[in-house]
């Protein structure tokens, strides 16, 4: 799972990233509102942890921008715990609120609680990654609201990426996941063709993919 952290205190930021990575999360850290805005403009994350007071603004405004893109989970991290700040945080769409100093175990529990709530909300089978939406109940795929028709193999390949979002998948791993979808063997060359076809259908510019990206000498990743 990909987590975005906005925290200007270097010691807290480093410690938080270290703890989250030890739990198996992928973490991206920003220290200012301007850095955060640049990062979130180009990429969606599974969860956002936002400090409230930053040197060039506040976490409220960053939360508003996140929620304007999609209903993505946000936890506020702040030194303030008075009622006014708590209410303001929820008013702009925050899903939870934790005050400094905090215990890592408590934060991890809150992360899992928030993500469980979002999992229940996605019980209708809809999974969204930016402008890409997959309705697993109906096996339908949409890009920016327009339906995209995939073959059974292309759909299976996309689900493999969706289910492993943020994780680099080797070609061997992909071959193991999709080789028998139609009872047919898929070799390495055929996999290359399927990935190209999938990109052609999902991407505005298949030469510079937004969703399925190549990780040189390693494999592919859905970000």
Record keyword descriptors for this entry.
223 residues; alpha/beta; Rossmann fold; Arc Repressor Mutant, subunit A; 5-stranded parallel beta sheet; 8 helices; 43% helix
Account of the protein in words:
This protein has 223 residues and is an alpha/beta fold. It has helices spanning 10-22, 33-42, 59-69, 83-91, 104-121, 152-163, 171-178, 188-202; strands spanning 2-6, 26-30, 47-51, 53-54, 57-58, 74-78, 96-99, 126-129, 132-135, 140-143, 146-148, 212-215, 219-222. The protein has 2 domains: 2-121, Response regulator (Rossmann fold, 3-Layer(aba) Sandwich), CATH 3.40.50.2300; 126-222, Winged helix-like DNA-binding domain superfamily/Winged helix DNA-binding domain (Arc Repressor Mutant, subunit A). The chain has a 5-stranded parallel β-sheet with strand order 2-1-3-6-7, with helices on both faces. Strand 10 (140-143) and strand 11 form a beta hairpin. Helix 2 (33-42) runs parallel beside helix 3 and helix 6 crosses helix 8 (188-202). The longest helix is centred in the middle third of the chain and has 18 residues, at 104-121. It starts with a strand and ends with a strand. The relative contact order is 0.09. The model has no long low-confidence stretch (mean pLDDT 85).
